[in-house]
């Protein structure tokens, strides 16, 4: 469990042990356990976030915890996997005291209950530098049923869940943009940035429906580019089809030039997938079942790369299809 | 895979993708895969290390990588698990360029081959602070056969593999102690600190033999204290029985007061276990088979806590039974 003796045991006992499930063995052993069953495949993903890079040092600790967990759950959902457990390592500066950790653990506890997962183990060490939080999430899928990035085929339609661009606009607001926005729009967009909604219900239900899938983290076009690259195909997205929230729509109405930028915006943690045209009825039914918009935004074509076009099919040039953090 | 777009893809493609096994899917998907089989249990452990806390920023990067991997393999061995895969997240300052990463990856590649494991996935992000390296290791054990800390029983004998105190003396040497030590002793002890030998062959073979096990990371007495606490028993260690390397013995001969300190020294990553007296022949046979010393150093008694006694059974007081890093 540890390369450092002092303070660590108390941190683990007070804040992390209450989060452990049966496989975590109370966090008193060297490791946690996962039982296997024939025909199942475990799906493992990891993300690290850094204070001052991926979140602001004075962001609410419970929201930092929930975002860290949720971005990993989003990766599992993008493979069609159901989440089971997670492993957490924290490297924390001395300035972050028990109060910060208590609120951080509260955020984990809340989302553990929501997503039906538990803590298996980890490590908690000190650093003289910025806090670094690393989370490994473990899910499961029936063997061979996992949805990869590489399965898109010519003629497939491209779909995305939820709405696009909210997180980028939320970050803009935190940086001082649109100061006159109505408070409810502001709250909604900032929350979408701080606490994404991983599509853990939709992802596993897209097994047998989606041929290739990814979650929108780096940016819609950049992430679609990953599907294109691994599937050896091109994709075209119609800018007019991008699903926007009411709050985002009100901002775009005032500044239509923002719209193409939202196609490059990341951090939405929506599911972006390619499916054959024949799957449309199934997708529509899933959308109704989960009360979650799932919108057709484009198609897979011959060629390479993902591109954005206007309603007349004319290409829309983008400054950059990636997305940068502060 | 990521919350940060730039530089990350290139880092992963160049340095980490070549380390991925089949389950890592070339590190192009959101997650890696592990197949399950009935009756097997996966064992998961994680450790994080921080530049300036657990290693020095100018330590050789390949040795940093190998130590990070090996301390996790040691945790798996302490559960009796066979290592399979690992997941790695790195948070690196901009000053650590491709050369550092190339050497870091070389160290991983070397030890992957040695221990028969591969990379499943991870994340690689930037930080404005100290480098933080977090590794989650995954092993397997037959379900129910894992060796926990809590199984020690009254009358059990306490054993430890290899030699004790080498790593602490190696760290002393790096800090300038014993400048007149012969170079071969110096090299041996420094290497024991920098590149521990996780007992991956011994650990799984102790299933059915050891009743409780831990690896020596925080310090022999502190780690034995964890066995005592979870097993609700006491342990007594005879200082004269501590197995020392020739290099350590030469130092202790000059400074006998060091000996009790070595009983508190950590970072040796040897296996420390309790076994019934009837298992002695099996342990001796394993020691011969693996050409690895396994030494009886004490016994489990009624009471609480781990204590050190001299050859006459008199208690030896210790300043601290823990072990601190620089």
Account of the protein in words:
- 2 copies of one chain form a homodimer.
- With 326 residues, chain A is an alpha+beta fold.
- Chain A has 2 domains: 8-142, PurM-like, N-terminal domain (60s Ribosomal Protein L30, Chain: A), CATH 3.30.1330.10; 149-309, Phosphoribosyl-aminoimidazole Synthetase, Chain A, domain 2 (Alpha-Beta Complex), CATH 3.90.650.
- Helices cover 33% and strands 24% of the residues of chain A.
- The first copy, chain A, is built from 10 helices and 11 strands.
- In chain A, the strands form 2 sheets. Chain A has a 6-stranded mixed sheet with strand order 7-9-6-10-8-11.
- In chain A, strand 3 (82-92), helix 3 (98-115) and strand 4 (118-126) form a beta-alpha-beta unit.
- In chain A, helix 2 (61-78) runs parallel beside helix 3 and helix 4 crosses helix 5 (183-194).
- Chain A starts with 7 loop residues before the first helix and ends in a 17-residue tail after the last strand.
- Chains A and B meet through strand 1, strand 2, helix 2, strand 3 and strand 4 of A and strand 1, strand 2, helix 2, strand 3 and strand 4 of B.
Per DSSP, the total helix count of chain A is 10
**Strands of chain A, total number:** 11
Sheet with most strands of chain A: 6 strands, mixed
Q: What is the CATH-assigned architecture of the largest domain in chain A?
A: Alpha-Beta Complex
The H/E string of chain A reads HEEHEHEEEHHHEHEHHEHEE
- Report the end-to-end length of chain A measured between terminal Cα atoms: 33 Å
**Radius of gyration of chain A over alpha carbons?**
20 Å
Strand content of chain A: 15-25%
Oligomer classification: homodimer
> Taking strands numbered 1, 2, ... along the chain, how are they ordered across the largest sheet of chain A?
7-9-6-10-8-11
Under CATH, the topology of the largest domain in chain A is which?
Phosphoribosyl-aminoimidazole Synthetase, Chain A, domain 2
Largest interface: A-B, 81 and 81 residues
Averaging pLDDT over every residue of chain A, what do you get? 90
């Amino acid at each position: 469990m540890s390369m450092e003796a002092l303070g660590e045991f108390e941190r683990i006992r007070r804040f992390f042990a209450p989060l452990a499930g049966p496989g975590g063995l109370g966090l008193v052993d060297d490791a946690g356990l996962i039982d296997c069953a024939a025909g199942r495949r475990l799906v493992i993903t990891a993300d690290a976030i850094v204070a001052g890079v991926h979140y602001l040092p004075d962001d609410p600790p419970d929201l930092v915890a929930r975002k860290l967990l949720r971005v990993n759950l989003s990766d599992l959902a993008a493979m069609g996997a159901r989440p089971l457990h997670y492993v957490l390592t924290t490297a924390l500066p001395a300035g972050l005291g028990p109060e910060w950790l208590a609120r951080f653990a509260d955020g984990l506890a809340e989302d553990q209950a929501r997503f039906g997962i538990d803590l298996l183990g980890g490590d908690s060490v000190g650093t003289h530098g910025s806090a670094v939080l690393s989370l490994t999430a473990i899910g499961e899928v029936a063997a061979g049923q996992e949805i990869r990035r590489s399965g898109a085929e010519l003629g497939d339609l491209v779909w995305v869940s939820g709405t696009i661009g909210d997180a980028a606009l939320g970050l803009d607001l935190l940086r001082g943009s649109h100061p006159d926005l109505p408070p409810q729009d502001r709250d909604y967009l900032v929350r979408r940035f701080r606490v994404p909604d991983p599509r853990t219900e939709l992802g596993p239900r897209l097994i047998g429906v989606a041929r290739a899938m990814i979650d929108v983290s780096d940016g819609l076009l950049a992430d679609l580019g990953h599907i294109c690259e691994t599937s050896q195909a091109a994709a075209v997205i119609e800018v007019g089809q991008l699903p926007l929230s009411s709050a985002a729509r009100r901002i775009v109405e005032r500044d239509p030039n923002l719209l193409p930028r939202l196609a490059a915006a990341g951090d939405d943690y929506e599911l972006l997938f390619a499916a054959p045209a024949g799957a449309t009825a199934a997708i529509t039914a899933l959308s109704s079942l989960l009360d979650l918009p799932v919108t057709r935004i484009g198609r897979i074509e011959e060629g390479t790369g993902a591109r954005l076009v206007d309603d007349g099919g004319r290409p829309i040039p983008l400054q950059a299809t990636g997305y940068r953090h502060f």
